[in-house]
Write a structure and sequence with these properties.
The protein has a single domain, classed as TIM Barrel (Alpha-Beta Barrel). 20% of the residues lie in helices and 19% in strands. The protein contains seven helices and 20 strands. Strands 8, 11, 12, 13, 14, 15, 18 and 19 form an eight-stranded parallel β-sheet that branches. A two-stranded antiparallel sheet has the order 1-3. Strand 12, helix 3 and strand 13 form a beta-alpha-beta unit. The protein is globular. The N terminus is likely disordered.
């Protein structure tokens, strides 16, 4: 099978905003790599299944709801046109922009029946995705949040989908080698197929990097473990660590903490050559006795470094430009019927509280502050 996205969005280094200002703040940009945009030209819904195309691993990457097939077609690259001209182009603007607003990092676990804590039904997950889209949200990876949300279009509100535990319901391959349309990935791919320009394939999967039992804890289907991880990366999604054994780091010894964080990263990167695991989420929300363990360390000659960590609770998180933003204590919203409805309603009624992009990755826009004389 050919790849949907053969390249990734390059990341740009952003200086941190040290204090809020009532103006548009202009920052220089250090370009780390030429921008290569993987343009995903998806979709063809056909009533009659075409001859399936397979990857080298044997998965036919097809998903649909209900049963028509969704074919992932070859991506096309938009190449860089060369150096940025010296003349400063006109900057896009959005009058309602607020890049100091809060950001939702949504926390999911299983997708299945019945609806209960740590389990969202497929229909309710579809409803979550549809409602977010209709309210102007735009999916990004967790690492994108940490790196400054530089590619969110003007007027859009970034949202991060995260999935803990690498449960089979997040990415299930059926007996006919198709992606289950009721799995988390199947639902996200189908929605992207309906809205390819406004809903990119972005989500972060915090995986248990356990290499025992033939990788059974990596999405529950050992023979597909490697192919699944590689497919997520090809789609532009992110893979993070959730330790090896889902251990509570708040009660673990220093040696155990470093083993869990070093080995889980190594296992994932061995399965996806060339990929670097940059982020993690602590199981049970259990932080180690020193936050330094989450940043870097080593065990048995294996070194690790994580640029950020997602907490297990806390509600809406801070903008990456908020002076109190801590990349290793990023709040998440555990999604339930009540919690997501409450916060989406709140931000709909109080739009000034949420992060809204100005569409210009060279500046950070914040609302002007009203003075007592105004």
């Amino acid at each position: 099978m050919t790849r949907c996205c053969d390249g990734f969005f390059s990341l740009k280094a952003w200086p941190r905003l040290t204090r809020a200002r009532a103006t548009r703040l202009v920052f220089p940009i250090l370009v780390l790599a030429g921008l290569t945009v993987g343009a995903c030209n998806l979709i063809q819904i056909e009533p009659v299944a075409p001859a399936p195309r397979q990857s080298a691993a044997g998965i036919i990457f097809v998903t649909a709801t209900p049963r028509p097939q969704l074919l992932l077609r070859d991506g096309q690259r938009a190449r860089s046109t060369g150096p940025v001209p010296e003349a400063t182009p006109a900057r896009p603007s959005f009058a309602g922009a607020n890049e100091l607003g809060q950001v939702l990092v949504l926390e999911y676990h299983r997708i299945g029946y019945p609806e209960q804590r740590f389990q969202r039904t497929p229909d309710n997950f579809r409803t979550d995705v549809r409602r977010l889209y209709e309210l102007g949200y735009y999916p990004v990876n967790f690492i994108d949040l940490l790196n400054g949300l530089s590619h969110v279009p003007s007027g859009k509100k970034p949202v991060v989908f995260t999935f803990d535990d690498s449960d089979i319901s997040q990415f299930r391959v059926l007996s006919d080698n198709t992606i289950d349309a009721d799995s988390a990935l199947g639902i996200l791919l189908n929605f992207h197929s309906q809205h390819p320009a406004d809903w990119p394939t972005r989500a972060t999967f915090f995986v248990l990097g356990d290499d025992t039992d033939n990788y059974n804890r990596i999405f529950g289907q050992p023979k597909w473990a490697k192919a699944k991880l590689r497919k997520l990366v090809e789609l532009g999604m992110e893979i993070g660590s959730h330790t090896v054994n889902h251990v509570d780091l708040s009660i673990a010894t220093a040696e155990r903490i470093e083993w869990e964080l070093a080995i889980s990263k190594r296992v994932i990167e061995d399965l996806v050559p060339g990929y670097t695991v940059q982020t993690m989420s602590v199981p049970f929300g259990g932080f180690p006795f020193s936050l330094d363990f989450l940043k870097s360390g080593q065990w048995g000659g294996y070194e690790y470094r994580y640029v950020g960590n997602a907490a297990a609770w806390g509600g809406p998180g801070l903008s990456p430009y908020d002076p109190t933003f801590d990349s290793h204590r990023v709040s998440r919203l555990e999604v339930t019927e009540i919690s997501i409805d409450h916060w989406l309603t709140h931000f709909e009624q109080n739009p000034q509280d949420y992060y809204i992009s100005d569409g210009d990755n060279t500046v950070v826009t914040v609302p002007e502050l009203e003075t007592a004389n105004q």
